[in-house]
Amino acid sequence: MMKGNLLHPELLSALAGAGHGSQILIADALYPHSTGVSSTAARVHLNLRAGMVPAADVLKAVAETIHIEAATYMQTAEGGASEAVQEFQQLLAQHVHGGGEHGGGEKITWSSLARMEFYTACREPDVCLLIATGETRPYTNLLLTVGVP
């Protein structure tokens, strides 16, 4: 079920173990990485320093490697989508509609949750992987559901 050019061994291993319906959290630097997912979820720390590695770069690599069925984002305090989430929506729309070597054919369903509900959803057992990024923009958390080819 894998595709793409991702090289990170731990990330590849965790993605390879994620089957249809599994969920993957791409988390900003402000997210509670140690307590924000189930104890059974794998954690891959790409947060070298503030701004490195950006969440959008992680999303691109993940989208080139697995099929994404759905995406749920953390709402801002005002109940909307952050600037980063809007960037994610554009990025995945380009990926899905032929914008890349591995794009095309996937339909991604988008939804959102308020902050506390998002935290609760991320602690569910279906979340098999947390990817900690160096992203410092608030509300840059995205929960992806793995789809099928």
What brief labels describe this structure?
alpha/beta; isomerase; RbsD/FucU_mutarotase; RbsD/FucU family protein; 149 residues; RbsD_FucU; six-stranded mixed β-sheet; RbsD-like fold; 6 strands
Describe the protein:
The structure is a single chain. The protein is an alpha/beta fold and 149 residues long. The chain has one domain: RbsD-like fold (3-Layer(aba) Sandwich). The chain is 26% helix and 21% strand. The protein contains four helices and six strands. The protein has helices spanning 9-16, 55-63, 83-96, 115-122, and strands spanning 23-27, 42-45, 68-74, 109-113, 127-132, 142-146. It has a six-stranded mixed beta sheet. Strand 3 (68-74), helix 3 (83-96) and strand 4 form a beta-alpha-beta unit. Helix 2 (55-63) runs parallel beside helix 3. The chain is globular, with a radius of gyration of 14 Å. It starts with 8 loop residues before the first helix and ends with a strand. Mean pLDDT is 92; it is low at 99-103. It holds the Pfam family RbsD_FucU. This is RbsD/FucU family protein. Keywords: Isomerase. It catalyses: beta-D-ribopyranose = beta-D-ribofuranose; alpha-L-fucose = beta-L-fucose.
Concise summary:
With 149 residues, the chain is α/β, with parallel strands linked by helices.
Helices and strands in order:
Layout: H1 9-16, E1 23-27, E2 42-45, H2 55-63, E3 68-74, H3 83-96, E4 109-113, H4 115-122, E5 127-132, E6 142-146
Parallel strand pairs: 1-5, 2-5, 3-4
Antiparallel strand pairs: 1-6, 3-6
Helix pairs in contact: 2-3
Organism: Vreelandella gomseomensis
Pfam families: RbsD_FucU
Catalytic activity: beta-D-ribopyranose = beta-D-ribofuranose; alpha-L-fucose = beta-L-fucose
